[in-house]
């Protein structure tokens, strides 16, 4: 049975559907019936069976075109952004037409940014097929592409028309990518949602085995947490920044490896550990809480080693982060487990110390 919840502000509310076999006429047709043309943007890592299934449903009501990108973070580029825009122009898409983002976070981010930019904005739908995209990037309206200077530095806030999450798509997801998505789920528990955190602590084995009941519940709780935060601060002027817990360091680790050595969630897991260590060094959390966080990350089989990273190597990327304002770095730290805070008053020496403890 599908669960439903809403995100976005009152003027741009959109429905999120979560469940098994939701990639169906029942949920897709109402979202596309008013559109003359649909562009499905996907990547070559998505099983053709899923792409063909969505295409066949859409063809009952509209003309369908496809753009298939190469799988991987490198596809979230200015070159692909231009390529998709030119394809939309070539196929004579207008403001009454629609984009469907079918894939993981890379596909969703670039598709959303294209939708926000083309003709100053056309509608798009998110159909996320990875756990990472389902619990994080498909909800909240952040769209972006990467440039050589860093990740997600060019983008826009732009909400989708709707989000359809089918947990069946996770069955074909490689183990490493599934675990990468779990980092974002853990994040929601660590920054705010105590109930989600207890679910994760008590059901780590069930989660790793991808049991349907627990997977649906952690997705629902993750999105509920994100939606609540985003509604309170849609354009990231304050509270919403806590969603970036672990990301300042995680993004730096990704950029340092040119987005090839490590998956986003793997980097975020390391980043959350670093941020937790800084929280401890800043006397915000006791050692026992730091140990609990480290144990939780290890329960989900994350590699937490920092041996190959030096703060001096990551510092240039850290200070290009979007959370730098007026030359000051805003860090997301923990006041306690399940309570995050934003601060730009910290001992800078603790950033490098965190890599050594």
Structural summary, described in words:
This protein has 357 residues and is an alpha/beta fold. The chain has 2 domains: 3-171, Rossmann fold (3-Layer(aba) Sandwich); 175-353, Dehydroquinate synthase-like - alpha domain (Dehydroquinate synthase-like, alpha domain), CATH 1.20.1090. Helix content is 45%, strand content 20%. The chain contains 14 helices and 13 strands. It has a 7-stranded mixed beta sheet with strand order 1-2-9-6-5-3-4, with helices on both faces. Strand 5 (98-103), helix 4 (105-117) and strand 6 form a beta-alpha-beta unit. Helix 6 (175-191) crosses helix 9. The longest helix is centred in the middle third of the chain and has 21 residues, at 212-232. The radius of gyration is 20 Å and the shape is globular. The protein starts with a strand and ends with a helix.
């Amino acid at each position: 049975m599908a669960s439903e919840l809403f995100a976005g502000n009152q003027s741009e509310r959109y429905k999120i559907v979560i469940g098994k076999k939701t990639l169906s006429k029942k949920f897709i047709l109402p979202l596309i019936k008013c559109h003359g043309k649909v562009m499905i943007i996907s990547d070559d890592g998505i099983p053709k069976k899923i792409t063909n299934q969505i295409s066949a449903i859409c063809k009952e009501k509209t003309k369908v075109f496809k753009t298939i990108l190469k799988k991987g973070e490198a596809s979230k580029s200015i070159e692909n952004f231009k390529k998709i825009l030119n394809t939309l122009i070539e196929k004579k898409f207008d403001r009454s037409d629609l984009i469907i983002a079918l894939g993981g976070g890379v596909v969703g981010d670039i598709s959303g940014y294209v939708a926000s930019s083309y003709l100053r904005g056309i509608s798009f739908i998110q159909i996320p097929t990875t756990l990472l995209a389902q619990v994080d990037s498909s909800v909240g309206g952040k769209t972006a592409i990467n440039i050589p200077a860093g990740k997600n530095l060019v983008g826009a806030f732009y909400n989708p028309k709707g989000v359809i999450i089918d947990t069946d798509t996770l069955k074909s997801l490689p183990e490493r990518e599934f675990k990468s998505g779990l980092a974002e789920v853990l994040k929601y528990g660590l920054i705010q949602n105590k109930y989600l955190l207890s679910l994760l602590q008590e059901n780590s084995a069930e989660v790793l085995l991808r049991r349907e009941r627990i997977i649906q519940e952690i997705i629902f709780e993750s999105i509920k947490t994100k939606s609540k935060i985003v509604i309170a601060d849609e354009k990231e002027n304050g509270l919403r920044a806590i969603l970036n817990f672990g990301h300042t360091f995680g993004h730096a680790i990704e950029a340092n490896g040119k987005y090839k050595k490590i998956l986003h969630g793997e980097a975020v897991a390391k980043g959350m550990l670093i941020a937790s260590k800084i929280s401890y060094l800043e006397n915000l959390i006791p050692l026992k809480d730091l140990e609990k966080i480290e144990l939780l990350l290890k329960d989900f089989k994350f590699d937490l080693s920092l041996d190959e990273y030096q703060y001096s190597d990551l510092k240039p990327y850290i200070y290009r982060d979007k959370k730098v304002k007026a030359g000051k770095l805003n860090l997301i730290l923990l006041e306690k487990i399940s309570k995050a805070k934003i601060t730009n008053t910290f001992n800078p020496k603790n950033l490098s110390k965190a890599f050594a403890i």
